[in-house]
Amino acid sequence: MDNPVLSVVVAIASDTTSPINTRHLSPCLAALAKQAASPAMEIIVPVPAGVPGIAALRKQFPDVLILEFSDLRKYTGRGNSREHHGALIARGFAQARGSLIALIEDHDIVAPDWGLRAVSAHAGPFAGIGGAIENGIDRPLNWAVYISDFQLYQNPVPKGQTHRASDANVIYKRAALDRIRHVWEQEFHEASVNEAMESCGEKIAMAPDVVVFQHRQALRLRAALLERFVWGRSFGAWRCAVIGPAQRLTWIVFSPAIPLLLLSRKCVVAVRKRSNLGAFFKALPIITVLTVSWVCGELTGYITRHALPRRARTAGTTTDSSQGLL
């Protein structure tokens, strides 16, 4: 599309526990293609080279720009890491041409008017607009995974300025991203990008009517537990890169108390929102074990200071050899 207003980068986020596939991409792209009164929009999907099903996806969605990359340093191909996600998103952002650049995940199904509302929300002065995220599959495990990730973005969310926006549903002004390009050019991390924008005097806001629905297909508890561990380890390793040794030691010492703290917060948020309380309490036992798995992964990240396990860090050119052995 010539002169798109909105560039939508779709990140594959559902490949942590298994080899990457396109299971979630097809319904995600179909929802984007059916947007009502859509602005001029381009869709970009950055993926590792050789993903099964890409050829068929290109035939199904000929207008979607699917970019394959074979030089990802942190891609193991075995589904035991999410470290390549940031690099893929950065590659997608670099190819975007719109004055607005959106980021969603492959298991998102956007609301029919998502694009129109995303552009309308950017009529104001905000550099970034975070949208609401809802659960789209009514099963206890799906609710548990959704709440573990996105409870804070469940409607009702307050409209207006905020300090956070999820990378599963966020839209940035291109000009604001360009001013901090050095922050995301190699790898995109939502916390670093949002913090850099605010340090430059920019503001981020929430728009509760810019909605996506999480559709995690064929979820299994074992895979969800592994995913929580891998993501927790990734977060712990990332945090080690931005905090000092004393803070790292503090997090290691107090890690056993973190599950109780996180679960208490989730209960408070659920009661405050008064939304799907029945589903929340039905899913609470699963939320508890998922939270414990996350904290175990986070603690592992603090101790090792690496997101990738040893076997992945020493398995050849697809990993980041600069990370060392521990």
Structural notes for this entry:
- It is a single chain.
- Strands 1, 2, 3, 4, 5, 6, 7, 8 and 9 form a 9-stranded mixed beta sheet that branches.
- This protein has helices at 25-33, 54-60, 84-95, 114-121, 140-150, 174-179, 181-184, 190-199, 221-240, 245-254, 258-273, 277-304, 310-313; strands at residues 6-11, 41-48, 65-69, 100-105, 108-110, 128-135, 160-162, 169-173, 204-214.
- Mean pLDDT is 90; it is low at 314-326.
- With 326 residues, it is α/β, with parallel strands linked by helices.
- Helix 5 (140-150) packs across helix 12 (277-304), helix 9 packs across helix 12 and helix 11 (258-273) packs antiparallel against helix 12.
- The protein is globular, with a radius of gyration of 19 Å.
**Mean of residue pLDDT?**
90
Q: Tell me, what's the shape?
A: globular
The quaternary organization reads as single chain
pLDDT < 50 runs, ≥5 residues:
314-326
Number of helices in the DSSP assignment: 13
Structural class: alpha/beta
How much β-strand is present in the residues?
15-25%
Distance between the termini: 46 Å
**Secondary-structure element sequence?**
EHEHEHEEHEHEEHHHEHHHHH
- Major sheet description: 9 strands, mixed
- Radius of gyration using CA atoms only: 19 Å
| Total number of strands | 9
Q: What is the share of helical residues? A: 40-55%
Task: List the defining traits of the structure above.
326 residues, alpha/beta, nine-stranded mixed sheet, globular, disordered C terminus
